[in-house]
Amino acid sequence: MTGTQGILLLGVDLLSNIVSLFSFITILWSLSGPFALFGVSIPGYMVWIALVYAIIGTWLTHLVGRKLVPLNFVKQRVEADFRFALVRARENTEGIALYGGEEEEKRTLLARFAALAANWRQLMTRYKYLIALTAGYGQVADVFPYVIASPPYFAGLVQLGALTQTANAFGQVQGAMSWFVDTYSTLAAWRATVERLTTFYRAIEKAREHAFDGVKPEAGTGHGYALHGATIALPDGQKLLEDTDLAIAPGAPVLITGRSGVGKSTLFRALAGIWPFGGGGVQRAEGTSLFLPQRPYIPLGTLRHAVAYPAKADAYRDAEVQAAMEDVGLAHLMPRIDQEENWTMGLSGGEQQRLALARALLLRPDWLFLDEAMASLDPEAEVQLFEVLRQRLPNTTIVSIEHRPAVSGYHDRHLVMQREPNGVGRVTEAMKAAAE
Fold first, then answer.
1. pTM of the full predicted structure?
2. Strands (E) located in 127-183
3. Which residue among 40, 139, 407, 434 has its CA within the 20 to 30 Å range from the CA of 368?
4. Which residue has the higher pLDDT, 194 or 326?
5. How far is CA 289 from the centre of its chain?
6. Which are the contacts of 132, defined by CB distance < 8 A and separation ≥ 6?
């Protein structure tokens, strides 16, 4: 209980203890009276004893329980690592089986579970010490006020009722002052959560320190996409492009090629306005734009929702959905169109890419960016789908990253992105016949 509800309950409990403290401290002060120590009269001595008792208990509790904060911090990390490893193993069962990597995966999972179990043992040991201390502290607190207040009673200065009232008031005051002792384990878990969130926040801030102003959207005519003085860099500061001007006019399909790792996908992200590392400006075209990455995003839910995404599941008529699914070769999935399951696991890589292309046919964007969006398909299927896109989307400007020469004929313009090792890249025009 370390979330918002936990913090609220801690706050309410603290407020309740403060009210109890102020309610009973005056009563205890008047009941306890003065006490002579080494010739010095101490008024309300039971209040001071309760304060000293609570301070000693708080110090001992912190001494024993302070390791709970780093242990709880590690607990959240190792639990998250173990859950993440389990999810990855579940999502990649086929690949693990094909590699014959079951034993290695088992060793990895057992190692992560061993770290989790070791952390739990340390936590249980520390909680055992803390519970023993706080339980003993509470037991002694029940008897302690009677021991302290008994001398006046045995001297006949106070009655039994006054002794009982004094002990009860002492218990209320001491209990309120011992709020830290009683809630230490909860506070330790809360602080661990706060430190983990703070660590995450610091990591984000550190990443932002390496970022420049980013490639910012610019106001313009909006007839096409354009980069103006754009510098595109990696998160570590390495520049992929520097002070680059690039214009893509509507109507003419554009092919972008280049070696792997030169930054073609990063260039697409900059054109989409989602790449924060670099500088300069990007002018985005009017109308709708759709960016399809190599690995499509398949949301949870029905297949109808997946093909209509990012629109609502009921945004398109059944006939429109069926036509789009038939055009991309997924007609066999139409009987399952309203079936809800994890389609990322149920569809092959090629089927997922076909599904993304069906979204483009439904949305009919003015601009369609394809970042190797057919890489999982065979060359014949890729050519066929390019023909479908050109026929079904005659008014859509297609900008694509591709490597296969068979699709170069579907583009009127060819751009090549080049970069020397450890150098800054550049984008140059190429003859269409030179497309790879």
1. 0.69
2. none
3. 434
4. 326
5. 27
6. none
CA distance 357 to 375: 12
Q: Measure CA 392 to chain center.
A: 39
Confidence of residue 212 (pLDDT cuts 50, 70, 90): low
Tokens encoding 274: 């989602």
* Contact by Cβ (8 Å): 171, 141: yes
Q: How far is CA 271 from CA 97, 217, 266, in A?
A: 39, 9, 9
Q: Tell me the two tokens of residue 140.
A: 């002694």
Q: How many helices (H) and strands (E) does the chain have?
A: 14, 14
Distance of CA 47 to the CA centre of its chain: 48
Q: Render the burial of 347-372: b for 16+ CB within 10 Å, e for the rest.
A: beeebbbbbbbbbbbbbebbbbbbbb
Number of neighbouring beta carbons within 10 Å of residue 161: 8
Specify the DSSP element, H or E, that contains 397. Answer: strand 397-401
End-to-end CA gap in the chain: 58
Q: Residue 280, SS3? A: strand
Q: What is the dihedral of CA 124, 126, 129, 135, to 10 degrees?
A: -70
Output the pLDDT for position 197. Answer: 86
Distances (CA, A) of 333 to 155, 356, 373: 94, 14, 20
pLDDT in tens, 217-234: 776 556 789 888 888 888
Q: Which of 158, 173, 274, 131 is nearest to 214 (CA)?
A: 274
Q: What's the sign of the alpha-carbon dihedral 34, 14, 196, 90?
A: positive
